[in-house]
Amino acid sequence: MIPRHPPLQDGWIDAPHRGAALGRFPLESGEAIDDLCLSYVVHGDLDDKSKPVVLGLCAIGSTHHRLDFLIGAGRALDPARYTTIVVDALGNGLSSSPSNSATQPGERFPRFTIRDMVRSQKRLLEQLGVASLHAVAGASMGGMQALQWGVSYPDAMSRIVALVPMAKTVPWSQALNETARLALRAGGAGSSTEVDWTAWVAVTHILAMRSPTRFAADATLDGMHDWLARRTAWWRRQQADPLDWIYQSWAYDAHDVGTTPGFGGDTARALAAIRARTLIAVPRLDLYNPVEAGIWAAQHIADCQLVQLPSQDGHLAASEADPETAGRIDREIGAFLA
What we know:
Layout: E1 18-26, E2 32-43, E3 53-57, E4 83-87, H1 114-128, E5 133-139, H2 141-152, E6 157-163, H3 171-186, H4 198-208, H5 212-218, H6 224-237, H7 242-254, H8 267-272, E7 277-282, H9 291-299, E8 304-308, H10 323-337
Parallel strand pairs: 3-4, 3-5, 5-6, 6-7, 7-8
Antiparallel strand pairs: 1-2, 2-4
Helix pairs in contact: 1-2, 3-4, 3-7, 4-6
């Protein structure tokens, strides 16, 4: 099963898409996904055992293209040096999701957690014959998954790269997600009508993803209303399913590495159990995953390098949106992985 793929964007790498059928998959809730399928891509050659393997993870509402700005010749995840497997997270519309399940479609699909995402990725690696990882890397929800990897499987990787992460989702982030869910429901999500994404885009692409400084720069030419209209039209072309995003946002809201079995809800103790060398990067201001959450996580990991980016872009800093910041991130990760 390889469902619909959004149109290729500038900077995306058109690697062959693969799918792994992993059978019935029990979830933390006690429910199960009947026929788990994970979508993924490989940059490099899995048969070449001479190169270390890096696992790349995607953010909420995104795909395996999320880390493409770090992949390529001369970049941090250079295929000449590493084999990078980038996995589509549960609920993103490419891997098993409410929008593509044959036996559990729509709201019949069971709710899942970020730990369920990580466990599904571990099962995929076992099927692929990957016994150990050089690194696990991700941004935003991908960074949250990366920290969960470090807690759940402390000996599975040598290094962790977590960009703009949280170890435990804070009430502010939960409130933003709830506002976005309300916007989707008001826009027709779950009904038979075509969904109006406008309010959701205003919440997620402006208020959550950008800083006031970044948005002022983005909206300079045409003004706020025209920018929002163009961005909403662009998002519609991505063919995203609103229920998929809602399910991922529920997983986002519930996340806490401290609720991993064995830690009794103690987030700090769970972070202290991470053995891999870790890099956490945060910008000056983040209106989605507050900077303080990333700094707090870094303070509780034994071997952690905190990179404070001089970026004014907000949550968008952990992407290719600003070439200067993207270059800085790429250099920091390249040196860290080496």
